[in-house]
Amino acid sequence: MSTEPPLVSFTGVTRSYGEGGGLVRALAGVDLTIGRGEFIAIMGPSGSGKSTAMNIIGCLDRPTGGSFRFLGQEVNNLDQDQRALLRRNFIGFVFQGFNLLNRTTAIENVELPLIYRGTPRRERRERAMEALHRVGLKGREHHTPGELSGGQQQRVAIARAIVTDPLLLLADEPTGNLDTQRSQEIMELIARLNTERGITVVMVTHEPDMAAHAHRIIHFLDGRIASDQQKAAA
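Structure for Macrolide ABC transporter ATP-binding protein, as requested:
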């Protein structure tokens, strides 16, 4: 029996903004465990707390109360630099808006996380090339974002997120700016990264068709988890 700690663990996590009459409780005591290798979709209406939960998991925000552990380490005890290292070493991010640098090529965009890590030029070029090929962009390495379709730009963003071999991929509405066909292609790519490479995926989405790719669907409502359902094995 494995004694390895879960990848992510929330115990009574709260997050409040403002004070007095302007106090907003974005999270109102959330208990959540995410194991390695899971593919989770987080859903809920605007203001339900889903994005706040993802920002805390990604070390982009801090809880007001409760315990947040990553691989058993209490993250609330880490300083800003330690939290940045945790993000850099273990987490990849994919956003709805792609967030690519417009004047740089696909391969240069993908190299960025490796530059921050201090990876030697030759190694980072090789790893960026491999990541782009993995997401189906062989032959597009030297195209700028303006020379790529929306779906191809999101593939570049995914390549950038996985070039560091993260344990966890956080995807915030990754298909929000794409048409139906491109959305399905991106979701199939993310699902393959989960099944073939074992990358844990946590995705925020409001689209049931996209959430259907996940193995577990968590619904947030009023800062709490309203339901947490594991998909039955096929």
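Residues 37-51+80-230 form a domain with the Rossmann fold fold (CATH 3.40.50.300).
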